[in-house]
Specification:
Elements: H1 2-5, H2 9-15, H3 28-45, H4 56-65, H5 70-78, H6 85-99, H7 109-122, H8 126-135, H9 144-151, H10 161-170, E1 175-178, E2 190-193, H11 196-209, H12 212-233, H13 239-248, H14 250-262, H15 267-276, H16 287-299, H17 306-321, H18 325-342, H19 345-361, H20 365-382, H21 385-401, H22 407-421, H23 424-440, H24 444-460, H25 464-479, H26 484-500, H27 509-526, H28 528-539, H29 543-552, H30 574-584, H31 589-596, H32 600-614, H33 619-631
Antiparallel strand pairs: 1-2
Helix pairs in contact: 2-4, 3-4, 3-5, 4-6, 5-7, 6-7, 8-10, 8-11, 9-12, 12-14, 12-15, 14-15, 15-16, 15-17, 16-17, 17-18, 17-19, 18-19, 19-20, 20-21, 21-22, 21-23, 22-23, 23-24, 23-25, 24-25, 24-29, 25-26, 25-27, 25-29, 26-27, 26-28, 26-29, 27-28, 30-32, 30-33, 31-32
């Protein structure tokens, strides 16, 4: 295809931009890439197709007419099943002339793409159009079960959704992918998505059809069922699968919460969905995001029932994880009063439980122990296995920090219970608390090994809060083992993670005391200057680099190692790497959106994800990391 793009005088003239009808067109290198892309996509549907002397001029003119826009080329290539290149050109020229009222000048990129999408939509069957519209309510992709649940209609029976979806994939409207984030063989590995341009187009058509609210309500119900199932099954052998599944559905949950909070009379559903996610807080980017949704839902007019009481203690728990005890207090007071008025034992248990957790974070360990022991009894009486395990974990934490003689037995029970249930994420917390207990009893070697085992799980399930706790714990352990430079760097790495998730260690009193003691010992042993240098080196690591450094057990970091981490791009998707490069070139979100022909909000979401994945807080850090990567 590259040869064809420059293989003859007529093609060369087209690439050079002398085709009067098509206007100036894209740059020669962009056009050459567009011809290659067209040839590749056509070969997928017509294996014998080649760009040769007989069609190279037409192919080049078509790619110029489409301004080299990849999505437009994808849509046009699909039409080669039934049309020739020349026929596609003729039909496009007719549409473009209508849009430009006969002008022979080039159309703006957005109008060029709009004309192609309109044409693709017009060529769809009624069932394909209906499904295209319905699928636009999804954000971030979906699986077949979700499409059948939400999009079945008078035009498409539930069983027929699969066939119609296949047709949209064949027409390049929908993208099919195998998602490596899901464990193999669990039934959820195949997912579908649409490019944002096509999704927004479908949403426009859905609004015109008058079905938008009905489809949004069905999407809401699907998200509610998903959250309820995840909550019911979270503490057990499917725990890691649910964590992965809900991470995949983050954008869908956000979209339905936004709908519920903006649509009159729907805030109650936002309360239910947001509160049900307590067991999968990793589905949020940080505790602050979960609090954002629940705060808005609680501020809306909703019935003063059990759903509100539950949302109150869940929100209190999230703000406590942020280190904001003052914000949690009124939430817990309202929750207790409402639960007592309703006679709701489940939510009263929640109020007692999180009040005990607040005491733990405040460093009031005897009070925390009493409240958490009561919460554990209440949870067990109600048959809430997952809630009971969390209360047990926090009870063991209080026991460790107050040097209770019961600490070892409670810690071992935490770990054994999680292992018996085969709840791997929970096992990582069991390893963490047992490691701390063994360290405080003098077995630092076993404690360090268990802490590293916990870190391995934290990385797999993207538990950044848990990773910060483990980095802290490992630093405490190593401080007394003659590894002070490494311990200083691990404290810096933990600080980076705390900052990335919006949590203040000063508000986590059960950890802050041991952190301060560790820092004091390191400053005394290393000196202020050496401690500060090591701390700063650790704070410049990325999330993945910090975990790898904690696990590898090698020498302390050299100055500059943090900036030269080679894995910066490895944690990003192909689209995120593309956007990171544009950020590094100094483009704004609006300019990125225009360059890639996507919505500005989509560009903003990608930049936010890049910052979160890399543990960064500013675009300047992306620029520095990307430029360092390029130089390496």
């Amino acid at each position: 295809a590259a040869d064809a793009a420059s293989g003859g005088p007529e093609v060369a003239a087209a690439v050079a931009g002398t085709d009067a009808e098509a206007g100036p067109g894209p740059a020669p290198e962009v056009l050459s890439e567009a011809v290659s892309l067209f040839a590749d996509r056509v070969t997928a549907v017509l294996p014998d197709f080649t760009v040769d002397a007989g069609n190279s001029v037409a192919v080049t003119r078509l790619c110029r007419r489409l301004d080299g826009i990849p999505l437009a080329i994808e849509l046009a290539a699909v039409r080669m099943r039934v049309l020739s290149v020349e026929q596609i050109l003729d039909r496009l020229n007719d549409r473009f002339r209508l849009l430009t009222q006969g002008s022979r000048g080039a159309m703006p990129r957005q109008r060029t793409l709009r004309a192609l999408v309109d044409w693709s939509y017009d060529l769809c069957t009624p069932a394909e159009r209906a499904l295209w519209q319905g699928l636009s309510v999804f954000s971030g992709g979906w699986d077949l079960e979700a499409a059948q649940r939400v999009c079945a209609s008078d035009e498409i029976a539930g069983a027929a959704v699969s066939d119609v979806l296949t047709e949209l994939v064949d027409k390049s409207i929908v993208i099919r992918r195998e998602d490596a984030a899901m464990p193999p063989g669990d039934g959820y590995g195949v997912r579908y998505d649409m490019l944002e341009t096509l999704r927004q187009y479908g949403e426009e058509r859905l609004a015109e059809s008058g079905r938008r609210t009905a489809l949004r309500l069905r999407h809401r119900d699907w998200c509610r069922e998903l959250a309820e199932r995840a909550e019911a099954e979270w503490f057990g052998e499917h725990q890691m699968r649910w964590l992965a599944r809900l991470r995949l559905e983050q954008a869908n949950v956000r979209a339905t919460l936004e709908f519920c909070l903006s649509e009159p009379g729907q805030a109650w559903a936002a309360l239910e969905i947001g509160a049900a996610m307590w067991s999968h807080r990793l589905s949020w980017t940080s505790p602050s995001e979960g609090h954002h949704w629940l705060e808005r839902a609680l501020a809306a007019e909703t019935p003063a029932g059990s759903e509100r009481a539950k949302a109150l203690w869940v929100d209190a728990w999230l703000v406590l994880l942020r280190g904001d005890a003052a914000a949690a207090r009124p939430l817990l007071e309202e929750c207790r009063a409402l639960s007592e008025r309703l006679g709701d034992e489940a939510q009263l248990a929640g109020a007692v439980h999180i009040t005990g957790f607040a005491a733990l974070l405040a460093g009031a360990f005897p009070r925390a122990f009493t409240l958490l022991e009561e919460a554990l009894e209440r949870r067990r009486a109600l048959g809430h296995r997952g809630h009971a395990w969390v209360a047990l974990l926090q009870l063991a934490m209080a026991a460790v920090f107050m040097n209770s003689p019961r600490s070892s037995a409670l810690c071992e029970e935490v770990l054994e219970t999680a292992r018996r249930e085969r709840a791997e994420w929970s096992v990582s917390y069991g390893l963490w608390i047992v490691a701390l207990d063994r360290w405080r009893r003098g077995d630092a070697q076993a404690a360090a090994a268990m802490m590293r085992d916990a870190i391995r799980v934290k990385v797999r399930c993207h538990d950044h809060l848990g990773l910060a706790q483990c980095l802290e714990g490992l630093a405490w352990i190593l401080t007394g083992e003659g590894a002070r430079p490494r311990a200083a760097e691990l404290l810096g790495a933990a600080h980076m993670v705390w900052r990335s998730i919006g949590t203040s260690l000063s508000g986590l009193g059960h950890l802050a005391g041991l952190h301060d003691r560790c820092e004091e010992l390191l400053r005394r042993g290393l000196g202020d200057e050496e401690f500060t240098a090591g701390f700063l080196r650790g704070s410049e690591l990325t999330l993945d680099a910090a975990a790898a450094y904690a696990l590898e057990g090698g020498p302390p970091l050299d100055a500059g190692d943090a900036e030269q981490e080679p894995g910066v791009a490895a944690v990003l998707t192909r689209r995120e790497r593309e956007i990171a490069e544009l950020v590094a070139r100094g483009l704004s979100n609006r300019q990125i959106a225009e360059t890639l022909v996507i919505a500005q909000r989509t560009a903003e979401n990608h930049v936010e994800n890049i910052l979160r994945k890399l543990g960064f807080t500013s675009r300047a850090q992306i620029v520095r990391a990307w430029n360092t990567r390029q130089a390496g």
